[in-house]
Amino acid sequence: MLRYDYSSMSADDMREVLRRGGTSMDNAVTVARPIVEAVRRGGDRALMRYARKFDGFKGGSFLVTRDAMDAAISRVSSPILASLKLSKKRIQVYHKKQRLNAFEFEDSCGVFGQKVVPLERVGIYIPGGTATYATSVLMTAVPAKVAGVEEIVMCTPARNGRVEDVVLAAAFIAGVDEIYSVGGAQGIAAMAYGTESIPVVSKIVGPGGSIVSAAKMVVRSDCEIDSIAGPSEVLIIADSTAEATLVASEMVAQLEHDPAAVAVLVSPSSRLLDQTFLALKQMIGRADRKDILERSFDEGAVFLKVRNMSQAVEFSNAYAPEHLLVDTRNPRELLKSIRNAGSVFLGQISSVAFGDYCSGPNHVLPTMGTARSRSALSVYDFLKIVPYQQLSVQGAAKLAPVVAVLAEAEGLPNHAIAARLRARGVR
């Protein structure tokens, strides 16, 4: 646990907090790069080797058959299926509000416009690990479907040689077209470069651990990705009206993700900071996943005293958290000043857990401060903008002198010639 007073923090302390303890991807890249290269060069043969080693793959085809999906769905309880369907519907409704529009206009120089084109084939990665990420299937596949992506491919590691039933059920509900039981860096490489059994995709999205994130970094020059996921994090801005038990529960919910998770409480109230610390310790003492919580608490639980809400927002914008919970008397007033956050949760009732599972906005979010320049996964991630133009002879004549001046200034005289020729018209 770390505790600071914002007004007296040293520059080193501030850098350390903003860097989330200085998490580095260097070691993960060292592990991921040879796996990616082996699969890129060796295809299915290399993929099979790593799938057996890391995923417990039993052999046969990587493709999950429709019969296997049907059998898995039959084993999932009705309440879980109903909850997945409701979550899918809410995610769909929210993401249908995200629109990029085509347009066309005409002026004295010609006709100009843009097309909005969905990607043809997208890969989604769904992690395994110590939890089951069925809702991540919905959060990645549903926006892709809304965008109009033609083929959605999913790679996910098998447990004991089999993909989790609830993950397959979520994939069916979301409309995933192909599912391959392969995970890790090898799964990312297979989607990025293609193998004999897994055709290449044009973009890979979805969360993952450090090795998966490192593999995405390695392939990004050849295959587009969404972003690099770091450990889960929440920053809570709270005033004296907040309830310590509720704030502590929010911190526990993030810290249980993994030992590197981070939960930051920022408040001008010393009383709330003290009470939340005590409540957090009590909750961890009796919680499931206690081993993870105790490890993440040591470095990832941060308590920051500020003078006022303006200072709290200033720090939050510098931190650029993945999740930002504003538990204050008037949270919507603070929203006006929030610039950098992956997703914002307003008010005491709006637990991040709702956003994680079913409220509608996406839970695939920028971490590690990248919310300063990146957004949550959305329909926009699956669309391309294609500009077009058709100049008239009059337009060419009007613009050719401008092209000539600028092209010659840049040392590219043949551009000027090409423009001047068009200004004469086509015979």
Write the layout of secondary structure elements.
Elements: E1 2-5, H1 11-18, H2 26-42, H3 44-55, H4 66-75, H5 78-95, E2 103-107, E3 110-118, E4 121-125, H6 134-147, E5 151-155, H7 165-174, E6 178-180, H8 184-193, E7 203-205, H9 210-219, E8 224-225, E9 233-238, H10 244-255, E10 262-267, H11 270-286, H12 290-300, E11 301-305, H13 309-319, E12 323-327, H14 331-335, E13 343-346, H15 352-357, E14 383-391, H16 393-409, H17 413-423
Parallel strand pairs: 1-11, 4-5, 4-7, 5-6, 7-8, 9-10, 9-12, 10-11, 12-13
Antiparallel strand pairs: 2-3, 3-14
Estimate the strand proportion: 15-25%
C-alpha Rg (nearest Å)? 25 Å
Number of strands: 14
The helical percent reads 40-55%
Instruction: Report, as a whole number of angstroms, the end-to-end distance.
Output: 77 Å
- Number of helical stretches of at least 4 residues: 17
Secondary structural class: alpha/beta
Please give a quick description of this structure.
With 427 residues, the protein is of the alpha/beta class.
